[in-house]
Amino acid sequence: MNFVSTDRSVRSLLRQGVEQLRSAAVPSFTLAAELLLLHVTGHDRAWLYAHPEEVLSFETAEKYFALLSRRSFGEPTQHLTGKQEFWGLEFEVNADVLIPRPETEHLIEVALDHLAVRELRAGRPVRSHGEDLTLVDVGTGSGCIAITLAKELPAATVYATDISSAALEVARRNAARHGLAERIHFLESNLLEAFAPLATCRPDIASAEAGHSSLSFDLIICNPPYIGLRDSDSLPVEVREHEPSTSLYGGEEGYELYGTLIPQAAQYLKPGGLLVLELGHNSLATVQPLLDASRWCNVAVANDLASIPRVISAERESVP
Ligand SMILES: C[S@@+](CC[C@H](N)C(=O)[O-])C[C@H]1O[C@@H](n2cnc3c(N)ncnc32)[C@H](O)[C@@H]1O
Q: What's this model's pTM, rounded to 2 decimal places?
């Protein structure tokens, strides 16, 4: 049973929510209380602060306290509101997908910058709409990377894979929400394996690839699961108990998937094609040597806002 105070004004409810989440040691407790209050009222932030005296209904207050209680016990705010913003777009999220993180936006920045630089280096005009570009987001989860790139590069051909069919359902709904249902080809696949029998077994994909001499991508982008199972105990309860383990753990150490993905990427990228990978906070030392000079060039690392190496990118050598 949730306690509903007699003072149901916006100001009082917000104050009580902040206090409850603070005492439960919830991270970013003020923001969480605000987001939950916004969610139950259906209003935006400006309304919240413009109407501090507004008295909410008993039912609304009760819903709010129920959500505060679930948040206090560790459910992520985004699971309670059902959404998360990424690159200025709103994405549906639930327990089947990783909640998009702000640091993943660096992947988008790096990919867009490199694609532009690559064109300039080749003496071609920058293809700002992604004409003739084919890209794949490996481990798409909510679809945030594939959908953002499809928006940014409206003429590009976009594929997205995930090993989780439940995640792909969420990603498909997000694509539809952003009017991109027809633009993105979602495939259930272990990394890039779905593309292996392309010419023979997947005429649907093969036809989308018509014009390329063989199946190949201009960009392979991936935010893989990179946490080590050995580190699971150190994760916050919100992550450990509420986000899907397939989206978190790359293996006992965490970096295992890079060792499979990088050689696959070399196989499926066009000569000069770009690989962009998100890094775990200590995976650089293991991942960088996998991008060996015989197959890769222009290896670059970008830090996130906390100065942690967050993105590694490399081009496939032009001469395979
Ligand atoms: C860290 S999450 C990234 C989700 C989303 N791209 C993002 O950045 O928010 C990793 C995703 O990879 C998927 N995944 C894990 N192992 C995979 C594999 N072997 N092949 C394809 N996808 C995999 C998970 O289901 C999960 O959706």
A: 0.92
Q: How far apart are CA 164 and CA 2, in angstroms?
A: 36
CA distance 220 to 175: 19
If you measure from the C-alpha of residue 152 to the centroid of ligand 1, how many angstroms do you get, rounded to a whole number? 21
Of 164, 195, 262, best ligand 1 pocket probe by most atoms within 8 Å of the beta carbon: 164
In this model, does residue 151 exceed pLDDT 60?
yes
Q: Which of 75-84, 193-202, 300-309 has the lowest mean pLDDT?
A: 193-202
Find the 82 Cα to ligand 1 centroid distance in Å.
19
Contacts of 247 (CB under 8 A, 6+ apart): 97, 98, 139, 141, 164, 167, 225
Map 169-211 to HEC letters. Answer: HHHHHHHHHCCCCCCEEEEECCCCHHHCCHHHHCHHHHHHCCC
Rounded to the nearest integer, the mean pLDDT of the chain is 92
Tens-place pLDDT, residues 268-284: 999 999 999 999 988 99
Residues 6+ apart with CB under 8 A from 25: none
Pairwise CA distance, residues 247 & 162, whole Å: 10
Supply 284's token pair: 């650089």
CA 259 to chain CA centroid, Å, is 21
Ligand 1 atom 19: residue of nearest CA: 190
CA of 105 to the centre of ligand 1 (A): 16
The residue nearest atom 7 of ligand 1, judged by CA position, is 100
- Cα-based distances in Å from 73 to 33, 66, 99, 141: 14, 11, 18, 25
- Using the predicted structure, report yes or no on whether residue 218 has a pLDDT greater than 80: yes
